[in-house]
């Protein structure tokens, strides 16, 4: 066998193995989708029915009545949008300052912020909870919004690294021209780092959208809950009544927004994750 | 000269001003809570008022608390998924790095579970692990294996959770490896081939050493993530599983703090967890010092 046919054969085998793996990765999600449009009989059919003979889209209407799904989506959107928009602004401004401006104690301050990355949320959640309960913010969205407005350390770190590779000359020249510092940031630096900012913003958005631990601590009333809590409650209620199509329909709704964002921005997200991981 | 020093003074002010929000956020939402957690761990704080200093008593109780020891054991045990995930992800990345057709599609498919909501995924998997109608057992039946009722059995609940976490995290690890593999210079392999090295030798002497920093990064971040496992446990086994066999440390902290209002006791657990994670991260920073951070 020649060298190139051997490579071709190996590649075919690898392709087949990867394809089998891909089936395992995607099958549970397809099964979730398929269950959501099944009739009761098909749900418990053995062997499993993958494509229901009579797809029932009714559950996708029923879920809006069955629980506070709409307010769940609203709450999640309010939290995720306000945090990412304001937080991205404060993060990128700080990253600009850390990378391009000179001020005393810069490296010490940066290191101090970095140390926050070592502290896991469970280690601060109890005092944070007590703090917010003292000022009467329990069962409101504020504890989930306010801390994020001050910025995100990971984003600052990432953007700072990215900015260091931007040549100083442009900025120095603009400084000499008497441009204001905010203009330096908004007109010169920000446009340069836009792709990095976008990728980080999307990752952050997904993180907040999918968060479960913080919301479960702060939110009690159904109409205040985020989407993730709403569907978890669907599960608790309807799993006992074995209305799996309903639960799966709700789960599909919870997945859909981030899935769409991911498919649209797939390239940027993957690049951003790869860079941050490899640079460690 | 005057304008230059004036310029610098302005720069100093703006520089500090622009970093004020994250610094303030750090003081309010990290430093202060950490200090308070630390203090709280030495008290019998019930979350309502009184905080009586009781010294190391919480920590002493911790190490004789059967449930805490069980939760710690479970948390560590479930990290078996880390090496499994690493091996699988590296194999997939090696496959994808050969430039076979459909690479982008594969990358997306393997990555979809990573971005999916953990709550929704947990709900889906608890249905998949159902003893009678679950997808997992129906699959096993193809091979004539009668699967257990995964989440209701103290011997199978942890393997079930490990299976799910591997599935969920595989795409992320694969992606990091793929990026690392793409940065290995092709000339290394060409040289190895000229020297007559076979595929495995090339892997052992070139690929593996070259991806070592990424492997280290993955191990560390996975340990940090794994030590905080909560959502899956809370949704899939809302009571902590049969005989508390799937409860994790964070699950136990959460129960003690917000269900039993034993804030002081829960804080002492949070401190132990925090110290553990701090040390793991510190090792990572130390190991990385030469290669990355240029502060």
Automatic annotation (TrEMBL), chain A:
Gene Ontology biological process terms, A to Z: transmembrane transport
CDD domains: TM_PBP2 (cd06261)
Highest taxon listed in the record's lineage: Bacteria
Segments passing through the bilayer: 12-33, 77-98, 110-129, 141-163, 184-209, 244-265
Entry keywords, A to Z: Cell membrane, Membrane, Transmembrane, Transmembrane helix, Transport
Classification via Gene3D superfamilies: MetI-like
Membrane topology listed for this record: Multi-pass membrane protein
GO cellular component, one term: plasma membrane
Record has Transmembrane as a keyword: yes
Domain ABC transmembrane type-1: 73-265
Pfam families: BPD_transp_1 (PF00528)
Main localization, broad class: membrane
Residue ranges of coiled coil: none
Subcellular location, record wording: Cell membrane
Keyword Iron-sulfur: no
PROSITE patterns: ABC_TM1
InterPro entries named among the record's database cross-references: MetI-like (IPR000515), MetI-like_sf (IPR035906)
UniProt family annotation: Belongs to the binding-protein-dependent transport system permease family.
Protein name, per record: Carbohydrate ABC transporter permease
Provenance organism: Paenibacillus woosongensis
Lineage: Bacteria, Bacillati, Bacillota, Bacilli, Bacillales
UniProtKB/TrEMBL annotation, chain B:
Residue ranges of domain ABC transmembrane type-1 in the record: 67-284
Entry keywords, A to Z: Cell membrane, Membrane, Transmembrane, Transmembrane helix, Transport
InterPro entries: ABC_transporter_permease, MalF_N, MetI-like, MetI-like_sf
Membrane topology note: Multi-pass membrane protein
Keyword Cell membrane: yes
GO biological process, one term: transmembrane transport
Subcellular location: Cell membrane
Transmembrane segments: 12-39, 76-96, 108-128, 160-180, 265-285
Keyword field contains Aminoacyl-tRNA synthetase: no
Gene Ontology CC entries for this record: plasma membrane
Superkingdom field: Bacteria
Pfam families: BPD_transp_1 (PF00528)
SUPFAM superfamilies the record matches: MalF N-terminal region-like, MetI-like
Main location: membrane
Family affiliation: Belongs to the binding-protein-dependent transport system permease family.
Protein name as catalogued: Sugar ABC transporter permease
Source organism: Paenibacillus woosongensis
């Amino acid at each position: 066998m020649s060298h190139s046919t051997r490579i071709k054969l190996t590649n075919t085998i690898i392709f087949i193995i990867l394809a089998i793996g891909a089936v395992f990765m995607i099958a549970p999600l397809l099964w979730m989708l398929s269950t959501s449009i099944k009739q009761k009989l098909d749900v418990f059919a053995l062997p499993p029915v993958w494509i229901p003979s009579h797809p029932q889209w009714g559950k996708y209407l029923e879920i809006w009545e069955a629980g506070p799904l709409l307010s769940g989506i609203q709450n999640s959107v309010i939290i995720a949008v306000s945090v990412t928009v304001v937080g991205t602004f404060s993060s990128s401004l700080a990253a600009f300052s850390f990378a391009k401006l000179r001020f005393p104690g810069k490296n010490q301050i940066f290191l101090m912020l970095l140390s926050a990355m070592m502290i896991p949320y469970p280690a601060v959640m109890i005092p944070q909870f007590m703090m917010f309960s003292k000022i009467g913010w329990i069962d409101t969205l504020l504890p989930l919004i306010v801390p994020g407005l001050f910025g995100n350390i990971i984003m600052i770190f990432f953007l700072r690294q990215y900015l260091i590779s931007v040549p100083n000359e442009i900025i120095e020249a603009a400084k000499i021209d008497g441009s204001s510092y905010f203009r330096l940031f908004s007109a010169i630096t920000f446009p340069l780092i836009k792709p990095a900012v976008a990728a980080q913003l999307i990752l952050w958005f997904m993180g907040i959208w999918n968060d479960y631990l913080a919301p479960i601590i702060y939110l009690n009333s159904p109409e205040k809950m985020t989407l993730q809590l709403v569907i978890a409650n669907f599960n608790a209620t309807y799993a006992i009544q074995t209305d799996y199509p309903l639960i799966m329909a709700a789960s599909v709704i919870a997945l859909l927004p981030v899935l769409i964002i991911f498919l649209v921005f797939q390239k940027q997200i993957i690049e951003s994750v790869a860079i941050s991981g490899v640079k460690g | 000269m005057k304008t230059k020093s004036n310029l610098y003074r302005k720069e100093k002010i703006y520089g500090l001003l622009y970093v004020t929000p994250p610094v303030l956020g750090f003081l309010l939402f990290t430093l202060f809570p950490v200090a308070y957690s630390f203090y709280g761990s030495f008290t019998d704080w019930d979350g309502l008022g009184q905080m009586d200093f009781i010294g190391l008593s919480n920590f002493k109780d911790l190490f004789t608390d059967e449930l805490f020891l069980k939760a710690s054991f479970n948390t560590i045990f479930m990290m078996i998924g880390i090496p499994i995930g690493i091996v699988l992800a590296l194999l997939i990345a090696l496959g994808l790095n050969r430039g076979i057709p459909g690479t982008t599609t594969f990358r997306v498919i393997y990555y979809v579970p990573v971005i999916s909501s953990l709550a929704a995924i947990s709900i889906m998997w608890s249905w998949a692990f159902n003893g009678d109608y679950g997808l997992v057992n129906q699959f096993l039946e193809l091979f004539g294996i009668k699967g257990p009722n995964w989440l209701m059995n103290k011997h199978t609940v942890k393997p079930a959770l490990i299976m799910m976490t591997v599935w969920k995290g595989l795409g992320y690890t694969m992606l990091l490896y793929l990026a690392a593999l793409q940065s290995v210079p092709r000339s290394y392999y060409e040289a190895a081939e000229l020297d007559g090295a076979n595929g495995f030798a090339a892997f052992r002497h070139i690929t593996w050493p070259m991806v070592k920093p990424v492997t280290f990064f993955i191990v560390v971040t996975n340990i940090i993530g794994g030590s905080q496992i909560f959502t899956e446990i809370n949704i899939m086994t809302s009571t902590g599983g049969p005989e508390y066999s799937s409860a994790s440390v964070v699950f136990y902290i959460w129960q003690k703090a917000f269900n039993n209002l034993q804030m002081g006791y829960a804080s002492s657990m949070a401190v132990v967890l925090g110290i553990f994670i701090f040390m793991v991260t510190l090792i990572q920073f130390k190991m990385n010092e030469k290669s990355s951070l240029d502060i």
